[in-house]
Design a protein that fits this description.
The complex is a heterodimer.
Chain A: H1 7-23, H2 27-45, H3 47-75, H4 86-93, H5 101-115
Chain B: H1 2-27, H2 30-48, H3 56-86, H4 88-94, H5 118-130, H6 133-144, H7 149-156, H8 160-177
The chains are: A mainly alpha, B mainly alpha.
Chain lengths: ~120, ~180
């Protein structure tokens, strides 16, 4: 390898490797990227409609997260791993994954509470 | 509108390959990397395509890096959920995949091979993947994209001082790991 002590030479060599990597994408990946780009461009034309759909998606996600939180509240968080039931798994499967980042963040908090003593400080 | 669309397409075409490679290095598999590039393109088109041209690239990488961070956050949450609901056995079972092994080697001979041995290339790719996320982002944006510290800070949503620190640490780590290939 042609690296030497000079950082600039090192960076040039790294850039050369990375450029080669980017230029040598397989055909399937190049095709997917092209399709993704075209799909992204389509959103320019259908902007207002897409925004409305996105708003509805967030509403659906928030509703599902609220329903799940209510379910957790009324059924109580399981105190141990053994107590996690099929009911909870079924409830999780109802949540739309793309729309529920906040929901999962909440779940992370619930899981942390369960691990550190069932919410008791 | 049509003029902007052509410019936008040309811009996206100019960044998509590097963006994919950056995402692939960050998440370790092709499908998730493509999803991240897709989310970045959609997000950038929706929010930033009307911004001045000179800010397009930093803003695009800002969205890309956010999506990569989101991916890591979601993975942490998913891992927690699995541990919580399915118990430790399932979590261990799922942890068997080595993301580094998921990156395909380039199949063809390319010009860099003339001066850089295949072993060294592999070592460099591995070293890059081993960098902490923020260090790798700073290094790739500064060294590969040629961003200034200010542009890198904008893309990473941090201060220029943080960029300097991340970049310096990345450079030190990479040079140390590539030491045996230095003359």
């Amino acid at each position: 390898m042609s690296f030497n002590d000079d950082d600039q030479s090192f960076v040039r060599a790294v850039r050369q490797v990375l450029d080669a990597e980017a230029d040598n994408l397989e055909a399937g990946t190049r095709s997917r990227l092209n399709r993704i780009r075209q799909d992204a461009l389509q959103t320019i034309a259908r902007g207002p409609q897409a925004r409305r759909n996105r708003g509805l998606g967030w509403l659906a996600g928030a509703t599902a997260a609220a329903a799940f939180a209510a379910m957790l509240y009324f059924s109580a968080v399981p105190a141990t791993l053994e107590m996690a039931s099929e009911t909870h798994l079924e409830a999780v499967s109802l949540i739309p994954l793309e729309e529920s980042v906040e929901f999962f963040e909440d779940i992370e908090f619930y899981a942390w509470m369960a691990e550190t003593g069932n919410g008791q400080v | 509108m049509e003029e902007n669309r052509r410019e936008v397409e040309a811009f996206l075409a100019s960044v998509e390959k590097r963006a994919f490679r950056m995402a692939q290095m960050a998440v370790g598999n092709r499908e998730d990397a493509l999803d991240i590039v897709q989310e970045a393109m959609f997000g950038w088109v929706r929010r930033y395509r009307h911004k001045p041209d000179e800010s397009w690239k930093p803003l695009f990488y800002r969205v890309l890096n956010s999506r990569i961070s989101d991916w890591h956050r979601r993975r942490r949450v998913r891992d927690q959920l699995r541990k919580w609901f399915a118990g430790p056995d399932r979590a261990l079972e799922d942890a068997g995949e080595d993301p580094i092994e998921q990156i395909p080697d380039p199949s063809g001979f390319h010009p860099a091979d003339r001066i850089i041995s295949a072993t060294a290339v592999q070592a460099l790719k591995t070293a890059l993947r081993r960098l902490p996320l923020r260090q790798r982002q700073a290094f790739l944006l500064r060294a590969w994209e040629g961003f200034s510290e200010r542009e890198t800070a904008q893309a990473m949503k941090c201060t220029q001082g943080s960029v300097k620190t991340h970049y310096s640490r990345a450079m030190t780590a990479l040079r140390r790991q590539m030491e045996e290939y230095l003359p």
